[in-house]
Give the backbone structure.
Amino acid sequence: MRISIKDLQKMKKAGLKIPMLTAYDYTTAQILEKSKIPIILVGDSLGQVILGYESTIPVTLNEMIYHAKTVVRATKTTHIVVDLPFLSYQTNNSDAIKNAGKILKETGAQSVKLEGGKEITSTINYLINRGIPVMGHIGLTPQSVHQQGGYGIQGKTAKNAQKIIDDASYLEDSGAYGIVLESIPSQIAKIITDKLSIPTIGIGSGVYCDGQVQVFHDLVGLFDDFKPKHAKRYLELSKLIQESTMNYIDEVNKSEFPSNKESFFITDEELKQIKH
Ligand code: KIV
């Protein structure tokens, strides 16, 4: 049985933290489940990290579905939440239900995440009333990068911070089961976390959130285009991969790879019978 939205909400009530990581493929998702992560996000950050786009804006519904299927296939107990990509839900509620439904039906994931505050609450309510669990996402919302003027910290003035706090309450009232708080001051994240009964999952929003989410590739040092300030590298994987690749190239060039250990042989008796 997979971890449900109720289980995640119980973790907040019990004062347990909720660690969450992104995964976009079978192999990574398998490792994360073995590590006992309770929730995996198939984030539209895959646009940059996997597909090499400049932002999350070009990501399509089919790309999200393709990657989410691999993550679901690799896991049995982890909760899988999938991002609804840009313009798959902002247009109208009928697009939102069609696209969110397609994600859940075709991938087997348990919930969807979408970005926005008060303006998106009628859509969240519409989805929830039709059986689709929704996680919200406020603060820095990468699908609005052009509107927000970049990837800067949000809520640094009292007016903006108040709007984020109010948006969080609107999302809770509309039925969201949890909310990602991205790149907001730690004190504002604490006010929201204390105020809401649903879990807050922070990224670049300080230690007081009920959970934390990070892009897996940032955690293990596997994405070198940029390193967000909020990310802590637990490993320098791209350096290790590059070293291994260079060793491989060197051994191939020197005929040291493959050795007998990695090769296959027939017996001398069989070999003798071959005419050449
Ligand atoms: O797409 C993503 O990875 C996200 C996280 C940054 C929260 O939305």
